[in-house]
Design brief:
Layout (H helix, E strand, L loop, with lengths): L4 H17 L6 H8 L3 H4 L6 H25 L4 H16 L5 H9 L1 H29 L8 H15 L12 H16 L2 H4 L11
Length: about 200
Amino acid sequence: MKDSKQYIALLSKSRELFMKHGVKSLTMDEIAKQMGMSKKTIYQFVDNKADLVKVTMQDFLEEERGLMEGILNKPGNSVEEMISMMEYWLQVVREFNATTLNEVQKYYPETWKMYNEYRFNFMLGLIQNNLKKGVAEGYYRDNLDTDVISKIYIMAVEILLNQDLFPTKEYTFLSIYREYLNYHLRGIVSAEGLKYIDGHNLFKS
């Protein structure tokens, strides 16, 4: 049943709605209405809203993992890898409501735990490997502490989501995330790596 067209459509629409509106304010009635589907049908696939949030996040992370692995399997240097990953992340956050992850952290601990396991079991290793590759290639600074930088990179999202620092009424998540990625990349590259950044339109509006 969970490979049915209805289930796939439910995951896709739920992701769109959660990313745009957050998770707390959306009711199962609203999701059902947006789907043109009865709640009874939705409950054939999930037990409750918390379950829907969890499977939607799981589906998103599995898709992202596949895309990241696809980027890493392509020929190219470390800077090209990082730029490709950043282009993907910028596309994801273009319609992203900054409160979504905050609400997941606060109200859906099982989903937040899964997200953290993904960050620290997969993304941390991915970033560490990219940094090590870049140092070996000479595109990243040779005095880079790859362990420290990769952990700062992974944890930075929680700072960017902090509503006291970056309230959504004053900042779009896209703008602050773009600025952070620019800050990160320019902070790790060598003079040689900088040649791959200058003239690239990744950080332009």
